[in-house]
Amino acid sequence: MTYEHLDSDLINELLDNGRSSLRSLAEELDVSVTTVSNHLSDLEDEGVIEGYTPKVNYDAVGYDVTAVMQFKAEGNALPEITETLREHRQMISVYEVTGDYDVIAIGKFQDTDDMNDQIKTLITDPDINQSNTSIVLNAVSENEQFELETGEEN
Q1: What are residue 8's phi and psi, to 5 degrees?
Q2: Is 63 helix (H, G, I), strand (E, B) or coil?
Q3: Which of 6, 8, 97, 110 has a C-alpha 20 to 30 A away from that of 149?
Q4: Could you give the domains of the chain?
């Protein structure tokens, strides 16, 4: 095998099964365990692979309300707002964005009362100028990752 696309192939294998052993990855990629280990270490050191975590089905553990919240920041308060949202344990994604709002946050809640309480706490922040919340009716696709192109035909 050529090593030209090894990093992409390694990442794609891990996307398929993040619990794969070095040995099984080496067999699948037709390289040595040492080669896989070295490339994996390099990818981790470079920040390409940031960790190995389980994919949690929040609905299955009682967090079946998803809300998409948009916030306008007051003045130069954007860093404070995003930090507050990032530290909030039920916010699974926080984005600074362009457009009518400055921040979009996605949160998971146990029910609408839980969501309502959390949102009311957040919007009392004087740095938040305006907010808009949408409740997700159906998550068609969520937390998906995609395979990297390797330049090889599949």
Answers
A1: -65, -45
A2: coil
A3: 97
A4: 6-45 (1.10.10), 58-135 (3.30.70.920)
> How far is CA 91 from each of CA 5, 61, 100, rounded to the nearest angstrom?
35, 16, 21
Tokens of 95: 């984005």
Rounded to whole angstroms, how far apart are CA atoms 48 and 68? 27
The token duo for 125 is 């922040």
- Contact assessment for residue 86 and residue 116, using Cβ atoms and an 8 Å cutoff: no
Predicted confidence pLDDT, tens digits, the chain (154 residues)? 557 799 999 999 999 899 999 999 999 999 999 999 999 999 999 999 998 888 889 999 999 999 999 999 988 999 999 999 999 999 999 999 999 999 999 999 999 999 999 999 888 999 999 999 999 999 999 888 899 988 765 4
Q: Which residues of 123-149 are buried (b: 16+ CB within 10 A; e: fewer)?
A: eebebbbebebeeeeeeeeeeeeeeee
